[in-house]
Every structure is written in C-alpha cells, then in structure tokens.
Amino acid sequence: MASNISYKCPTCGAEIFWSAEKGCFDCIYCGDTFTLEQMKEAGAVVDQPIDEQKVEHAEEIVDGEYTQTTDGTVSKDLVKYSCSHCGAEIITDRSTAATICVYCGNAVIMSEQIIADFAPDYVIPFKVQKNKVMEAFKEFSKKPLTPKDFDCDKVVDKMQGVYIPFWLYSGKCDGRIEGEGINKKTYRRGDYEITEKRIHDIMRDGTVNFEMVPVDGSAKTEDAAMDSIEPYDFKDLVKFTPAYLSGFLAERFDEDADKCFPRAQERIENTTRSELEDSAAYDELDIKSYQKKTTIEKTEYAMLPTWLLYTTYKEEKFFFAMNGQTGKFIGNLPISKVKLVLYSLLGGIGGTVVGALLGMILG
Ligand SMILES: [Zn+2]
Ligand SMILES: [Zn+2]
Q: Which of 55, 94, 213, 259 is the Cys-Cys partner for 255 at CB 3.0 to 4.6 Å?
C-alpha cells in the first residue's frame, strides 16, 4: 500500500531516516549515512513522483475515539490508514501528512496528503536534533516559578518533530505615503526655552519587492507562535521529496493560500510603509495617508521544521514550540501560585518580571 513510502538503507536494507544531527540520511542499524544524492546513486527511489493510481486513500471514521493528532487534541475529522510495515491501524486526523506507527515505530507517510494540490514545492530538513530540544526544554522549565509537581522529564517525552505547512508569497507592493515631516530645534533665549518647528509637506512613493514571505497554512497551530519562531533561513530550502518526512510528523495545509494571504499582506504592507517612512529623514512624521497595492506574483508551498510540545497541567493547556532549523523557541509553563506569592513577598522578583512570565513569550 502506498500510504507508506519507505526509504531503505542502500547498505543493509533497513528503514532509513533523516538525521538532524548529521544533516543526512542515517541508518541506525548499520551506521552508514547518505546524502539524498548518494541515496539516488545507490539506486534508492527517493525522488520519483508518487504513482497516484496506487495511493491508499484514508478510510473515514465515524465514531473515532483515538487520535494521533500532533497537538494531542481529539479531532472530529478522523481517518484511518494501515501501516504497511506491521499492518496496524493508524488513526489520525485528515490533515496529517506523516506520522510514526505507534506499534512498530516505522515512518508512515500519507501519500494522498502530499500529491496533486497538496504537493509541497520545498522543504527545510530538520537541523535541530531531538536531544538538543529536550535539553533546551528542561533548562527552560527550570524556572523559579514552575510548580514542584510539574514533571518535566515526563512531559518532555511528548516533544514531537513536526513539519508545518507554510505558504510563501512573492511579489511587490506599491506604496505611497503623504503627510507632514517635522523638524524641531530647541534653544534658550534669556529665561525662555524656545522650540521652533518647521513643517514640510511630504510625499514618498516606491515599490518594495518581496520574496517568500511565510505564513503557516495550518489551522491547528497557533499563528502567533509560528510567527514568533521565525525567521527561517531559506538558504536551506531544498526541493521537496517525501524522504525528508521519514521519521517525523507532518501536517499538510488545511487553510489555502487565499485564506492565509491577509496575514502575509499585512506584513508586506507594514514593511513597505516603514521603508517609505525611513526614507523621509525628519525628527517626526505625521502620516496623513498611506496608499498601497500588493501584487502577488508567485505562491509556493513549503514544509518547515518545528519541535512542538503540548501539555496540560491541572486542566490548563501549555505549549512549547521551537524552530527546527534555528533553535529559536517560545513557550509557556505552569506557574506555581504559591511560589508566585512567595517571590512577591520576598521582593525577589519585580512586577515586570512576573508580568513578562505571565506574558508567556520567552525566547
Ligand atoms: Zn543500513
Ligand atoms: Zn506499524
């Protein structure tokens, strides 16, 4: 069945996975490593288009009670595949593009989620390895305000490497700002301090070209979290082949390029405005109008690596996300109320620090 596209080690025939640590495919059985090129040279089928005729389609589940969704929530739209290694049933939600069989540990890639309209153009293979992420999380959770019974060692096991779908928009923005540029001069005359203001009418227009502005296309991931772990360095972007998904989880997009476009547009138009403003060298600017027109010339689709951890503590949800290429992360943690009171009483921690912790954006 084609729900599983496996990649075999050219030396020993065992299933082979992408190694973030080594930056190549790594056989944990015989220890041989291969680049994608070497895999091809050794005759491994790594970049053949998927035969759409042979793709296994998911079976609908009406009353599913199990789930393997990446965020640990129970999805209503569950489907069923079968693991071609061990035959076990794989129950997952509709937007899952790759997972790991919980029974045999082999990689399961849902071909129907990466072909036709769902076929990604690019991928950035994982660079940050799991033990590094786990160390970072343990360090992060050693906050003075983390409750004593928050079991970090147990929680960290839930850390998952997930490829998140991103839309990449390229095009241009024509912008025009009009308003007043104000220059100020302050000087003393006798007992008076005099401020002289010179006001100039200003107009600036220009075109800003932009390339690959990323916006995640997954409804289930927190948009703000995904924005916070950016940027990704697109120098590592390579042509997509399913082999990179092997051993990781992957989501395919469930929000299309049109739906996600307003988020890209906002970023593009804000950037264009500040570029135009920067070109007007005055002490102060009073912008009366900003006209802009964004034109998209190309939309591409990429899978970008993230490490995600969802957990609950006393029925509250907590979340940790790391950029799987750069290691940049954000997250929130339970805060012990007892400790919080203690710290404030002792004056060991100021209001702003507590505020920042509660603000939950750490990185
Ligand atoms: Zn091998
Ligand atoms: Zn299996």
A: 259
Say how many Å lie between the CA of residue 23 and the centre of ligand 1.
Answer: 16
Ligand sitting nearest the alpha carbon of 39: 1
Distances (CA, A) of 354 to 151, 152, 338, 357, 358: 22, 21, 13, 5, 6
Ligand nearest to the CA of 8: 1
In the block, which residue shows the tokens 């850390």?
A: 159
Q: Report which bound ligand comes closest to the CA of 6.
A: 2
Q: What is the pLDDT of residues 199-238, one digit of tens each?
A: 999 999 999 999 999 999 998 888 888 888 999 999 999 9
Cα-to-centroid distance, 179 and ligand 2 (Å): 65
Extended strands (E) in 53-159 = 59-60, 78-82, 89-93, 96-100, 107-109, 122-123
Q: What is the pLDDT of residue 346?
A: 54
97 within 8 A of 245, measured Cβ to Cβ: yes
Q: How far away, in angstroms, is 61 Cα from ligand 2 center?
A: 19
Residue 51 has pLDDT above 80, yes or no: no
Measure 242 CA to ligand 1 centroid, in angstroms: 19
Distance of CA 14 from the midpoint of ligand 2 (Å): 14
- If residue 279 lies in a helix (H) or strand (E), which one and from where to where? none
- pLDDT, position 340: 61
For residue range 53-93, what is the model confidence (pLDDT) as tens digits? Answer: 777 777 777 654 554 455 555 556 788 888 878 888 888 88
User: Residue 256: which of 131, 165, 352 has the closest Cα?
Assistant: 165
SS3 of 99, please?
strand
